[in-house]
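Changelog-adjacent note: as of this version, every example in the card shows the full chain rather than a window. The one below runs 199 residues end to end.
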Amino acid sequence: RQIRIDTSTLITLIRFGFPLEINEFLGFIYQRFDTILTGILLTPTEIAYLAVARKIPDSLSGLFEAFRSVYFPYISQLGMKKEWDTVAHAINQVIRALSFVAFLLCLAIVFWGSSMITFLFTGEYLASTTLFQVLMVALSLGFINNVFGTSLVAIGQSNKPPIINALHSATSLVSNLILIPRIGIIGAGISSLLGNLIS
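Full-length structure tokens:
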């Protein structure tokens, strides 16, 4: 009937979970800082182009979350059993499959990106095609980064992804501040690409 706190378990939870909270915060910064900067520096039309260019990549990110919700417990279970060869093999296979699918997707976007924009959003948004293509390449790299980050957390190394994402956030912040004022909304896409390359 007494309230007791298991401090060792609580400390373990905080040690494991706190870096992940920092990671979520950093993710918000590098994913949405360009929108804030675009809103401050550019016109409503350019903000609309950025929103349209992001629609498909954001939707695909949602689908990727479904994959991650299956991948994470699988790798966690292997890590718990210390089956490191199987973990390495699983990561390699997932990265290969994702890279191949992302390559095909990016190739399709290069050839039919403008047709997709016209079909889905009307021809008034054709100016967002190049940004859409750059964001898709950035997204394909982001998927790979995400698999590696998820794998680190799954095997208990939750302190490493925040370090990687701190570099990503710093790159995105600096490149957005430099590129958006100079080259407009395409700077947001290039910043996203640079951040994922650094990660």
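Structural remarks: Residues 84-121 form the longest helix (38 residues).
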